[in-house]
Automatic annotation (TrEMBL):
Record key words, sorted: Methyltransferase, Transferase
Pathway involvement of the protein, from the record: Phospholipid metabolism; Lipid metabolism
Annotated protein name in UniProt: Methyltransferase type 11
Keyword Kinase in annotation: no
Signal peptide: none
GO MF, one annotated term: S-adenosylmethionine-dependent methyltransferase activity
Region (Disordered): 1-21
Claim: Transport is one of the keywords in the record: no
Species name: Methanosalsum zhilinae (strain DSM 4017 / NBRC 107636 / OCM 62 / WeN5)
């Protein structure tokens, strides 16, 4: 296995010392993507937000800075990322503005109608069942709650070779914009808005419960 393949596999579920390095790199490299995605929604004051698959944990800090009167919860299934996120966000956790938990998108550890907004940055490629996982998020959203999904990879002919390599190394799955839209409707969302930057292969999905 090449070094590139090893690094790509760490993106799926970072672990060990190398996983911690990958998590820290995510915190830096993904910030422009996060901010572009977040431009497409309006966070109401005092929102309760869930970040699914927070990686290195900096996205939680970004969400908290945009939502100073509310609270941000994060779940990730990687032990290493939970530890890193707790270190990165120690002050915000101690102040009660952020809560970090280990958990999976397949069984989100919160009650129905908990969140105003749920976010997933660079993570839904690795979910075990996209429609069912969209449905599980739907369960936890309040009525008229918003799901925001932001990815830097989607099915586009310009990036076919690169994306195929990623998928081969990591097992990631990615789809065309209309396929994502259809999956969101199948999961029960009342609307699904999609925006792209084709030259970067970036995509954002905004779905309302």
């Amino acid at each position: 296995m090449s070094e590139l393949d090893k690094r790509l596999q760490q993106c799926r579920r970072p672990s060990g010392p190398e996983g911690k390095v990958i998590g820290k790199e995510m915190n830096i490299r993904h910030q422009q993507l996060w901010m572009w995605g977040l431009e497409h929604i309006e966070l109401m004051p005092g929102s309760t937000i869930l970040d699914i698959g927070f990686g290195g944990g900096m996205s939680l800090q970004v969400l908290s800075s945009l939502n100073p009167e509310g609270k941000v919860y994060g779940i990730d299934y990687s032990d290493e990322m939970v530890k890193l996120a707790r270190d990165v966000n120690k002050e915000l956790i101690d102040s009660g503005k952020i809560q970090v938990l280990q958990g999976s998108v397949s069984c989100i550890p919160f009650k129905n109608f908990t969140f105003d907004v749920a976010c997933a940055f660079e993570t839904c490629y690795f979910w075990p069942d996209l429609i069912e996982n969209f449905r599980e998020i739907h369960r936890t959203l309040k009525n008229e709650g918003i799901l925001l999904v932001v990815n830097e990879v989607y099915d586009h002919p310009q990036f076919k070779d690169r994306n195929s390599r990623y998928a081969q190394s990591t097992g990631m799955k990615y789809y065309k914009p209309e396929e994502y839209r259809n999956y969101l409707y199948q999961a029960g969302y009342s609307s699904a808005e999609i925006h792209e930057i084709p030259e970067k292969n970036w995509i954002v999905m905004i779905a309302e419960k």
